[in-house]
Amino acid sequence: MATDARGGAAGESTDEPLHVEGEDHLEDVTAAYDVVLVDFYADWCGPCQMLEPVLEGLADETAAVIAKVDVDEHQQLAAAYGVRGVPTLALFADGEQVEQHTGALPEDRLRGLIEEYAE
Hints:
single chain; alpha/beta; Glutaredoxin
């Protein structure tokens, strides 16, 4: 069985979402792991709050790393990715962005996207 990159960088656990501290951190995370789902969110966003337990489950149950970017804290980073509304979900595979969706997606759709790239 092949080893995946779930060991974490610098002691970070990938069984729960990672909170991104800035553009360099996001680049490091997307480069270090095969599949990364980035959640651009805001604390005041109702759909973001509803999506939180889904993302926590996906972080624990899939090979993907879930990265969280607070758009209020990191406005320039959100703008760099063309985030116009929250939640916006960006999927990275092998360091490259391959998908981006605005709005909360159902768990089965998110799981399908992750599995499509986690081969």
